[in-house]
Amino acid sequence: SAKKSMSKDIVVYSEKLKQASQRRLFLENALKNAIEQNQLEVFLQPIFDIESKEVIKAEALLRWHLNGETISPVEFIPIAERSDLINTIGRWVFATVCDIQVRLSEQGVKLPITVNFSPKQIYDLHLINFFRHQIEEHHIDPDLLELEVTEGVLINNYNKVKLFLEEIKDTGIHISVDDFGTGYCSLSYLKHLPIDTLKIDRSFIEDIDDNEDDRAIVNAIIAMAHSLNLSVIAEGVETQAQQQYLIDHKCHIAQGFMYGRPMPVTDFIANIQNNNQHQGKH
Ligand code: C2E
Ligand code: MG
Ligand code: MG
Ligand code: MG
């Protein structure tokens, strides 16, 4: 009967919930040791200039290797954010990206790397001192570092965030707004914050070929960026058609599987040297 099958659904559902919460607990515990156990790795994904056909930047994307499985940041970053672990992990990622910059410069590669920034890290006391210290210790040009903050960060706590971003700017680190278009950031916010770049969220690029609304949003973001003198990057570009749309609408910086997936640093270095050679550069 319908009633019987519904109660069966409820049993299955609550069993699923139980499994999900058990996995979360398990992961939260395991995550506490992930850094000491060397389980975290920073991957790099190229950001590409469509006009010059050169990789002009890279995004640092975290991976967690646990018992032969690679766990997605989509799953473990929210877990880290619910505890204080995100602060430790966020600092670790920044320090690791500084290490990577040293490696790149040893290979003669000068390339800005962007680091994702969790809203919770606003409350990490002395974080900016930590950044300064890492930059000095590694002898890095802060021009080669960029924080990606999400739009949500900008809207909540506007005054605190403005101060925080201004202090970041003082260190020389650049700032971009990630997943742009998904929040409700107004033009006047953008104008008064020390932002360099807008990254158009992948969800708007995905259906750009046949979704009128997505096209309108993408066009508006590009226009907004140009009028505020910000650079603009399209995320999640996978097809020629999407790329052509961007070229036609004056967005020539893109990131997506079409240009390269996130990959280990060693592979990234090999690829970029190869690519730049093909472009006649060394
Ligand atoms: P995000 O910052 O928006 O990063 C872009 C995500 O889109 C990455 O997923 C990347 O692999 C994926 N992506 C790039 N191009 C394409 C494409 O053409 N098609 C598709 N389908 N996907 C594409 P990933 O690496 O799984 O990271 C997911 C999210 O996890 C990131 O989104 C970011 O919010 C968060 N994250 C990753 N690393 C860190 C970190 O070190 N710290 C913090 N706080 N968050 C991180
Ligand atoms: Mg990002
Ligand atoms: Mg993004
Ligand atoms: Mg995201």
UniProtKB/TrEMBL annotation:
Coiled coil segments of this chain: none
Domain EAL: residue ranges: 24-276
Domain of life assignment: Bacteria
Name assigned to this protein: Diguanylate cyclase/phosphodiesterase
Source organism per UniProt: Agaribacter marinus
